[in-house]
């Protein structure tokens, strides 16, 4: 069975340049925008708490590195889904994860 990590986009119907831009956008909005916003709200506001129980536990246990680690896990999980979608020629799985992360990060 071929692993997701060994998939080359050259072997799929999807454009590697487009893939790079999709993931650049999702990383910029979710990876940077959402993380910076969450850090600012959690660290500098006395009335705002993290609503996600898993993120709250990670922050309480590991501080900001727990938050960054959980966000990185989510990003890498979505990247794996997108690569699997490319391998299976499934446009929804290919475009869905970076689009979802970009929307979540933007808001």
Describe the structure.
- By secondary structure, this protein is mainly alpha-helical.
- Helices cover 74% and strands 0% of the residues.
- It contains four helices and no strands.
- The chain has helices spanning 16-44, 53-62, 64-87, 91-106.
- Helix 1 (16-44) runs antiparallel to helix 3 (64-87), helix 1 packs parallel to helix 4 and helix 3 runs antiparallel to helix 4.
- It is elongated and about 50 Å long.
- The N and C termini lie far apart (38 Å).
- The mean pLDDT is 86.
Key descriptive features of the protein:
107 residues; 0% strand; elongated; single chain; mainly alpha; 4 helices
Please state the overall shape, judged from the principal axes of the Cα atoms.
Answer: elongated
How would a textbook summarize the main sheet?
A: none
Helical amount: over 70%
Spans of at least 5 consecutive residues whose pLDDT stays below 50 are none
| Structural category | mainly alpha
Count of helix runs: 4
Strand/helix succession: HHHH
**Strand segment tally:** 0
Radius of gyration: 16 Å
β content, as a range? under 5%
Distance between the termini: 38 Å
Kindly report the average pLDDT value: 86
